[in-house]
C-alpha cells in the first residue's frame, strides 16, 4: 500500500460494538473470515460471531485461508466452515455483509484479496492489532488495547443478542471466545493480560465456557513422533559461554527415525529457555546434507529471553541472511549442519560480548 492510500484510508475506528451489531442485525447472508493460517483467536472470534448471527436467523458461512490447526473440527462442530484452499472460492457467493476478524492487513489475506477488495463497502473489520490497512473495510471496530479480537467480538455478540453481560452468553459462544482470549495471552501469562481480560474470562466461565476441554483440545494434541524428535534434539543439546547459549541440532536421519515431519520441531528452542542460565537458544535443522543432488542447507531457529541485556536474535538472524523479531527469528543457511553451527555460535558469542 502506498503512503497516499494510508493517508486517505487511515487505520482508525469509525464504529463501536453497538454500531457493528446494528449494522449486522439486518443482514441476510454474512461471510465471516480472518487471517491466513487461523490461530485460536481467529477461529474463536469467527465461530462465536457466526453462532451469534445464526441464532438470529442470519445465514452465515465462515471462510478460512491457508493451513488449518489440527484441533479445528473439535472447536467448529457443526458451524458451516469453508477452506478456500480445499473447497475453492464459491463463484456465486453474494453476501450482503462481510466481517473480517483479527486482522486488517491485505498481506494476511492471500487467496481472498481481490474478492474482498471489490467488496470493502460492505465489509466490517473487528481487530485489535496496532497496524492495518484502512481501505480493507468501510466499517472499522478497532480496539488496539484488547489482548484478543475476541474481546470486542464478545461485546458485539452481547449487543446482537441483547444481553447485559458476557456471563449470560450461550456456552456455545462462550467457549470459542474463551479460546481466543486464552491463546492470544499464552493462557493468561503475557504482558497483554490486563483486568478486562480476566473479567471477560470470568464472565465466559460463568457462561459455561469449557476451559478444561479447550486446554486438552488445543495444547495436548502432540503426536508421539514430535516427542521422539524432541528426545533426539535434547540428546544433541550443548551449552556454551557459561551456559548462556543453548544449541540443539536435528539431522535428516532424526526425522526419518522418529517419523516426525518438519513442523514437529516448532517450539523446541522455547523449551530450552526454561533453563535459568540460558539467554539465547537455537535449533539447527539439517534440510539437505548435500548428498542427494541438492546443495547443503541448514535451517536455524532462534529464541531469546526477555529482560535486561536481552539478545536481539533478529540481528543475529539477519547476519546469517534471515530475520524475524527481537525475541524470535530464523535463517536458512546454504551450508552443512556443522558449518552452520560454527557460524551461528560465533555470531552468538560475539553478541554476548
Ligand atoms: Mn488476535
Count of structural domains:
2
CATH architectural type of the largest domain: Alpha-Beta Complex
What sequence of helices (H) and strands (E) makes up the elements?
Answer: HHEHEHEHEHEEHHHHHEEHHEEHEEH
Low-confidence stretches: none
Strand percentage, roughly? 15-25%
Average pLDDT level: 95
Strand order of the largest sheet: 3-2-1-4-5-6
End-to-end separation: 40 Å
Ligand types: manganese (II) ion
User: Radius of gyration from the CA trace?
Assistant: 23 Å
The SS-based structural class is alpha/beta
Number of strands: 12
CATH class of the largest domain: Alpha Beta
CATH superfamily label of the largest domain: inorganic pyrophosphatase (n-terminal core)
How much helix is in the residues? 25-40%
Q: CATH topology of the largest domain, anyone?
A: inorganic pyrophosphatase (n-terminal core)
Number of helices: 15
| Inertia-based shape | elongated
Précis, in short:
With 353 residues, this protein is an alpha/beta fold. The protein has helices spanning 3-8, 17-25, 40-55, 72-76, 84-87, 113-117, 150-160, 171-184, 195-206, 211-219, 224-235, 252-258, 268-272, 313-319, 337-352, and strands at residues 29-34, 59-64, 81-83, 97-101, 123-127, 139-142, 238-240, 245-250, 280-288, 297-304, 323-324, 328-333. Manganese (II) ion binds at residues 41, 102, 128, 148-149, 184.
